[in-house]
Amino acid sequence: MLDFNALISTTPDTLTFNEQVLKQINSQIANQLNTGILVLDADFNIVIWNRFLQVHTDKVAENTLGQSIFSAFPELPQRWLSRKFSSVLQLNTPSFCSWEQRHHLFELPHTRPITTDSEFMAQNCTFLPIETDCKGKHICILIEDVTDVCHYQTQLQKTLAKLAQISRIDGLTQIYNRRHWQESLEQEYAKSRRHGKQLSLVMLDLDHFKLLNDNYGHQCGDMVLIEVSALISSLLRVEDVFGRYGGEEFAIILPETSLSGAIGLAQRICNSIAATALTYKDQTLKVTVSLGVAQLSAEEVNYEELITQSDNALYQAKALGRNQVCSTACSTSLVID
Amino acid sequence: MSEFHLTEDQQDCLQELINIAMGQASDQLARYLDTFVYLKVPNIESVDAKELMHTLSQQKNTMAVVSQGFFGYEGIRGEALLVYQEEDSGRIADLLGYEPDELSQDEQLIDISSILTTTFLNVFARQIDNQMSYNAPKLLPSAKDNLSEHLQQMPFSWDLALKVNINYQVTDYSFNCNMILLIPETAITNIKDVLDRILAEF
Amino acid sequence: MSPSVLICDDSNMARKQVLRSLPEQWKSSVQTATNGAEALTILRDNSIEVLFLDLTMPGIDGIGVLQGIQKLNLNCSVFVISADVQPEMQSKVKALGAKEFLRKPVKPDDLINHLQQHGLL
Question: DSSP character for A195?
Fold first, then answer.
């Protein structure tokens, strides 16, 4: 370990020697730092650069030192950066430039070519005002290589986005899961109440699904759930929210849709499923669904009540013999038993 | 009253130091921006953590928050938050003398924040014979939830926050933002020592 | 001989700072005010010869006091001592009759110099 205190002596003779040693130490540190150092005079000419920049650029000292930073590095945004430099000189305050807003200032290559998106080193740059005994102020530019940070942060963002997506999706059918569907309903309910817009709901259930499972096995049941989900998805608008509510129960939120519009859609779903022949291990399966439709009225005080309404209608469709659509507008006499 | 509360004299002393710092910072800014900067008396309040969290979450149209750490000698350090409302952000590029297409809105906010924070704190530090260094300013993700999350995740517990309402009016339009200085416990004690030292001179 | 002096500033510390900078023989005849309204009352009811005036104060500010002095036609030497140091403000207060503009925090030597320049010492 170096004892810095030992280097600073009070006697004038040794002081000059030790200043020399300190200077050597400082310059070696500056040259071995893994940070780019660039010092500019008040006219933005380069007066010092360290080894980091020499090895990361193809430039030679003769063509760089004494040059304007903007001719040595023509890639720099001159107008904006000069304004930033003058704030450093005039206000005597540091200034910063982060990779998060501007990926890089200097076009320097990095050593991780495969894993990253950019061919240039991501940088955090700091501009510091420097005052010396010599007349005129200087600006010190520190250039940190943050390619790793940038890379991992980007990966993290991608992963988080993917996770957020996964947490909303039902693994088997690839439509929304119950949790996300219910959150969407809560939002749509609030929106509809706020703006006085129509909102309808369709709940549907596969008919005799237990029998299908018993006769053909659960793999067949899964296949049917997947096929039916895909078929229904193809009949919906982008703004409709389709989710798996429970085992073989599905639900569709229809924003800005009247009851008759919702009944029309439910009927199309009912018809096309009944008309589509599904095959499992060379056997043709007959699959049908029952659907219950409800529209938000002034009555409901929360979104759960809307679910109850369409659930009741679905129960009625089942009671009336399945493979059909019932709505809250249908006769309720059959629901009593 | 906690031990971190400032006495009346300390509060008065701090207010005066901040007024002077703000005045000189405005003068420097006016020269840099080449315009007249009209400065209202900065309104300084010290608020406790819970109160601040509440105030900030009440602000409906908080658009952006820029945070920047500062470090001085004698353990004087903290974090400066600049809080902008939606309507304040329109013409920052004009103010800074940039062409709007040269930089993004985020970068404009960061630039102006850094200039306000460092200019002000440099003058403040000079008055108490101190010197500051700074972290790079960081734009917190918008929305108030993120702000209270940020405050909760601070590495230090801070019992006192100084809220300085800055209102810069620049010749032909006004520009408002709130500067909030979050000061950790230990730094408050240090600041109080410095204030007492200044007060003792009278 | 010591003139009657008024120091007007909302900050206790700032008032003390001015007081400390005054010539020793003046210190016995100093009154203080914490805002513009208070200052104007004192100025109206007493014959104040020298006023040290802050600009940014709640209620009636320093500019208001300067305007009040002009309106009341008072003969009083005003030294503005302010944190608002922009040149525009300096010319504004001089146009309103202030003798001198001093930057905060006020320095004793500076203050004495200005008092001498204006023949008050």
Answer: H
Answer CATH for A169-335 from 3.30.70.270, 1.20.1420.30, 3.30.360.10, 3.90.950.10: 3.30.70.270
User: How many angstroms separate the CA of residue B27 from the nearest CA in chain A?
Assistant: 10
Q: Does A83 touch chain B (CB under 8 A)?
A: yes
Looking at residue B45, its pLDDT comes to 75
| Mean pLDDT in residue range A128-132 | 91
Domains with residue ranges and CATH for chain C:
5-117 (3.40.50.2300)
**pLDDT above 90 for B29:** no
Task: Calculate the average pLDDT of chain A.
Answer: 89
Does the domain made of B8-200 have the CATH classification 3.40.1550.10? yes
For A29-81, the pLDDT digits (tens) are 999 999 999 999 999 999 999 999 999 988 888 889 999 999 999 999 999 99
Q: How far apart are CA A138 and CA C79, in angstroms?
A: 38
**DSSP string covering A228-276:** HHHHHHHTS-TT-EEEE-SSSEEEEEEET--HHHHHHHHHHHHHHHHHP
Q: Is residue C11 less than 8 Å (CB to CB) from chain B?
A: yes
Subunits close to A (at least 3 CB pairs below 8 A): B
For chain A, the domains span 33-154, 169-335
Residue C10: how many CA atoms within 13 Å on its side-chain side? 18
**Class of A33-154 in CATH:** alpha beta
